Amino acid sequence: MRLRTAGAARALGALALLLLAVPGPWGLDGQAVAAPKPVDTSCSRPPKAGAPLPDTPTGRTLADRLGLAQAWDLADGTGVTVAVVDSGVDGRHPELAGAVGAGAELVTVRSAEEFRRQVPRAPHLDCEGHGTGVAGIIAASRAGEPRISGVAPGARIHPVRMVDGVDRTTANTLAAGIDEAVAAGARVLNLSFALPVDRAPVRRAIARAVAADVVVVAAAGNEGTTDAPMYPAAYDGVLAVGAVDAAGEPMEQSNQGSWVDIAAYGENEIVPASGGSGYQQVSGTSFAAPQVAGAAALVRARFPGLTARETADRLTASAAPVGVGGGDPRTGAGLVDPFAALTHLGTGDAGRDPALNGAIPVQALPANEPGLTSRSVTALAWSGGLLFAVVLALLGAPVLRRAAARGWRAGPAREGSAGPSGRAGRVPPPPSTTEQLVPPVRRPEPGPGRTTVRTPAHPRS
């Protein structure tokens, strides 16, 4: 019994030493250890001020070119969260009011942990303005400037700020940002950057996002390369987005290859600027990608039963081909068409989603009913006969009256003939006016010494 008690005491002592050795809120001396101090991530210099909104030719806004007014009649992205892994998003801008969550930020640190995830002390920070422009294309409000509207104005933006910039951060930090977006419940993930090197941590993070049923959209890049894959766009399960100009022609600087899936507009687009107000003019595949991400949000809002893969397939199957015959290596399946994506009659599991394919569910054909019964035929025959008799009576009444007036003889009625009632048939017409006014000419009898003079019936006037 003593040996058993002593063994238990030694075990408890070892467990206590182990717990004290584990890093946590309590040190070896039992004193509380302060949590790591948040890293200062404020901008070293204020973001570039936005410019006033430039004049936009009528009918050439992004909403006009993409046919968004028709698409919004079907869906606006409400209920869908789109994560933006970028330089941050300034949610103070009037075009983004109420659409941006607090999000998270990841900053590289000089320690064994390599990076640190923290809640932004200033959620609106976007030192470069890149992420704010991307978020504006996705979810800018319809209630703001009418020439600036997001593709999915009802969607919610979850910003993941890469403090050091996506092109300067470590692979593990970038992978942690992608994992953060998935953990936040994003159903669409926008990655407006392109890296020339396949980084294993990033590849694995993308695979986890795809496995979590997230639609991953990435920019193809602006280097003008041919058959040189760019990442994460070239990873399996990612929608790689090229760019076209305002006329719908492929942009020369848009990277090309068989891994490019779809395209969107990427020349001189007007987007919100960081700093709380103003606008900026931008170009490149970075701003074509969020148009596809916004279209994915529309599809996922209208068809919540579709998987990420089915959503991506719907976007590419409904894209408008670019150029003769389509299939340009810079534009993939063609130009994204949000309205067509919402109404495309593709294949899918209609039983899982009643609104699938954008069509009204087809009603079942009525059962084959037997023909008319003998009783119905008899009733129809009697009804037809009675109707014929009524019509015949109505048409024959005038004929009978005229026949009675003729005394039932053939031909027209005779003047003065009496009908069945004893009345004359037709009264002779009264004498003409000439017969009443001009009396008949009397000729005197010839006698002695008289000459017969004939008076003309009509003396000359």
UniProtKB/TrEMBL annotation:
Residues annotated as catalytic: 86 (charge relay system), 130 (charge relay system), 286 (charge relay system)
Highest taxon of the lineage: Bacteria
Domain (Peptidase S8/S53) ranges: 77-334
Parts of the chain that traverse the membrane: 379-400
Matches recorded under Pfam families: Peptidase_S8
Biased composition (Low complexity): 448-461
Matches recorded under InterPro entries: Peptidase_S8/S53_dom (IPR000209), Peptidase_S8/S53_dom_sf (IPR036852), Peptidase_S8_Asp-AS (IPR023827), Peptidase_S8_His-AS (IPR022398), Peptidase_S8_Ser-AS (IPR023828), Peptidase_S8_subtilisin-like (IPR050131), Peptidase_S8_subtilisin-rel (IPR015500)
Family listed: Belongs to the peptidase S8 family.
PANTHER family, A to Z: CEREVISIN-RELATED (PTHR43806:SF11), PEPTIDASE S8 (PTHR43806)
Protein name (Swiss-Prot/TrEMBL): S8 family serine peptidase
Species annotation: Streptomyces durocortorensis
Lineage of the species this protein comes from: Bacteria, Bacillati, Actinomycetota, Actinomycetes, Kitasatosporales
